[in-house]
Amino acid sequence: xxxxxxxxxxxLDAFFAAVEQRDKPSLRGKPVIVGGVGGRGVVAxxxxxxxxxxxxxAMSTREARAxxxxxxxxxxxxxxxxxxxxKVMAVLRAASPLVEPLSLDEAxxxxxxxxxxxxxxxxxxxxxxxxxxxxxxxxxxxxxxVGIGSSKFIAKVASELxxxxxxxxxxxGTERDLLRPMKVGVIPGVGPATNERLRRAxxxxxxxxxxxxxxxxxRLLGNAHGHGLFRLARAQDxxxxxxxxxTKSVSSEGTYDTDLTDRKLMEGLLARQATHVGxxxxxxxxxxxxxxxxxxxxxxxxxSRSSTLPSPTDSGPAIGRVARSLLADxxxxxxxxxxxxxxxxxxxxxxxxxxxxxxxxEPEVELPALPSTRRSYSPGMDVVHDEMGPGWVWGSGKGxxxxxxxxxxxxxxxxxSYSVDDPALAPAPVPTEG
Length: 434
Hints:
Blueprint: E1 7-12, H1 15-23, E2 32-35, E3 43-46, H2 48-51, H3 61-67, E4 72-74, H4 78-95, E5 99-103, E6 106-110, H5 121-139, E7 144-149, H6 152-159, E8 167-169, H7 175-179, H8 192-200, H9 206-210, H10 214-221, H11 223-232, E9 249-260, H12 263-283, E10 287-297, E11 302-313, H13 316-327, E12 336-347, E13 382-385, E14 389-397, E15 400-404, E16 415-419, E17 425-427
Parallel strand pairs: 2-4, 7-8
Antiparallel strand pairs: 1-6, 1-7, 2-3, 5-6, 9-12, 10-11, 10-12, 13-14, 13-17, 14-15, 15-16
Helix pairs in contact: 4-5, 10-11, 12-13
């Protein structure tokens, strides 16, 4: 923990939903829910107008519809989120050379490297407000909540205290007083299972946690987790802000509307996903040693199995063989909703075969047709009409697509319906990354 409040955490407010409201004038000030729109969908982000009705991230779309049936339910437009995030990260990197992105919508910034005249509370607070104003300017009005403290833990806790569109600075020396009344769930790593274990031990707040000895904590939670929680309960966190965090894994997965029961089909899907993972590894000059499969069963039980290779690989066929062997150990007779393949233990080199042999390519697996997991026109996606111009899909079904014609720079626009095969209507081109 530092002696100054010099770690800043920025968290963009309801980010995906806020981008949609920015780009769709008719949705401003109204409930917006971004995520899977099907029966098995999950909420990725809910606008604050939807949160009033109890909608939250990770809730099933089915429950979200029951709680807030009048909301706009949209699929994600990740190109728009990436573009907006890039502008925000550019602002932060101009402020300090040490910026640690955690996701598209949050990052840590080391203010000790920002060239400020001093790190007094008033100085860092003013600078935090300046950064928030810059973020709003470059994003077209999106808001972010900022926390500033003497460590990453304290800064992240502080950014939650005045949401949305707020700023909180925790003065050095006041950290433990701030934490004591809080629930233990605010501590990173305290998920539902750990929370329940602590509850059974009569530990509900950080003040309760602070009263437990380190030995007792280790007996309760294990060595690594116990020591870590003991320190964080006392605001002890010396983790540095690390710029350009390395990619830890590369993965590919798919969710299916109809449960999969054909083992050959599952093996083929894993082989195809492994090919995609291998292509991404090679594109970025990476390889990996640990292959993991993720399988979500018909009852929503999620299983994972891993195997570590003797040397790193970027070969799709090699990854696919390991993935299929891992699947063989699982009982999937009840049906599978999701399959995924990932590679971790990444390196920027590949062990050359000592005998000069190359990995044999496997033939492309021919898969039976799967039920479509998305419509031709999904709610929220950008479209363009030859006469009406740009717009977005309000909804589609039974051969009809309904479009609202508006953009971020126009007033709320008119609504029109078309046949899905109308030649005048087409998906808008998605900007390529580069």
